[in-house]
Input
Amino acid sequence: MVNSKIQQNIELLQWFYRFLYLWKFLEKFIKQKDISSDAVDSPITTGDKKNFVLKWTVVKKILSEIYSNPNKKNIFWYMVEINSFRWIFSVTREMIETQESFQMFLHKKLKDKAFAFEQIIRFLRNVLNHIETADVMLKIEDFVKQKDFLLKEKNISKIEFDLKYSDYFVEWKWSKEYGLCIEIDFGKLKEGQKVFDIVPLHQIYLLSEFCFNLSEVFRSVMKLGEKKVIKKFYKRKK
Output
């Protein structure tokens, strides 16, 4: 059975993944349909007979700006995407470093890819936890220790996480080509680089999805036995 601590980790990770899904859907809806005229004062209950009111004027302005500038970065970029990625990768790293059962599961499932996965998660977690601008640029302290570890202790510079679900998950019933591919050459990293020039946004989304799927499989394996994993957990169009 999954212990209470890791169960909390899994729930938090999955909440942020679903949060990302829901709010990116709402962003697309807001860009396509002008709903600013529907804005009204919205009281939020904050205590016994106490409310905080979301002012309709502020809501209307935000909605109008997003609808009028669909190609411009908006609050969803930073507050939804960046924060969701940050938490998904932070919780995944927490499970890797503190939960022995998850570590064992990870190495059993990913085999030769486990080390690369851990290093990619560590890198992105460090970078996203220390960002100070919406451009998400590298600072040397975000990667220098990891770079030194890889170069001096492992005698490698490049980390490559190239994985197709069908090669590592017997439960996978869909496209054999579906997966993700992330490469980071730590020897070439420089302060001031944009993170999404190093790891494309598309791959960040795929990695977030992969963390979610891992958490689902892990929970199922621990509760039901690996052969009974429900395949609908993986259902995802290419």
Q: What stands out?
A: The chain is about 55% helix and 10% strand. The CA atoms of residues 163 and 199 lie 15 Å apart. The longest helix spans residues 4-32.
